[in-house]
Amino acid sequence: MLRDAALRITKPRLAVISAVDRLAHPDTESVIAAVREAIPDVSHQTVYDSLRTLSDLGILRRIQPAGSVARYETRTGDNHHHLVCRSCGAVVDVDCAIGETICLTPSEDHGFQIDEAEVVYWGVCPQCASTSAPAESADGAGAAASPEAVNTDAVDTDAVNTDAVNTEATKLKVASP
């Protein structure tokens, strides 16, 4: 794989590929930690450079769901998609559904030579859903946010009734499919 890309085979590059392959969609810090298990004195910069080079050459795939840090994977030979947990940030591969139509072909390409479409599905993973099941209210609707989840640090509490803010936060609901 490295030879096919005309890259020198180095211990750090092999360790980076191994770490990304072994871990589930790791972020950069996770890759650095895993590489340091094999090569204790490897520098951050060497790992960053390896991730960039390997991604640029298509040996690794870099994904970065909105609002998330960059993550890496070795599954590069297809145009699969991802599920991202809004609660814990877990990322899972999803194959394209056969026979289902989603917008993978734009109505206008604006002169671009399109070679890939990226779809990210957002939701809550089974583990987070089971550990943080929303409390039932009197009307049977679950609360999506607890009063503790509302950031009131940036709010001037003299000008705002924080009890009203917290009460409104408990009324938020997530629509489920």
UniProtKB/TrEMBL annotation:
BP term (GO), one: negative regulation of DNA-templated transcription
GO molecular function, one term: DNA-binding transcription factor activity
Gene3D superfamilies: 3.30.1490.190, Winged helix-like DNA-binding domain superfamily/Winged helix DNA-binding domain (1.10.10.10)
CDD domains per UniProt: Fur_like
Cellular component aspect of the GO annotation: cytoplasm
Localization (cell): Cytoplasm
Chain residues that bind Zn(2+): 85, 88, 125, 128
InterPro entries reported for this sequence: FUR, Fur_C, WH-like_DNA-bd_sf, WH_DNA-bd_sf
Cytoplasm is among the record's keywords: yes
Keyword Iron: yes
Cofactor: Mn(2+); Fe(2+); Zn(2+)
Alphabetical list of SUPFAM superfamilies matching this protein: Winged helix' DNA-binding domain
Binding-site list for Fe cation: 100
Co-factor: note: Binds 1 Mn(2+) or Fe(2+) ion per subunit.
Alphabetically ordered keywords of this record: Cytoplasm, DNA-binding, Iron, Metal-binding, Repressor, Transcription, Transcription regulation, Zinc
Family of this protein: Belongs to the Fur family.
Protein name: Transcriptional repressor
Organism encoding this protein: Xylanimonas allomyrinae
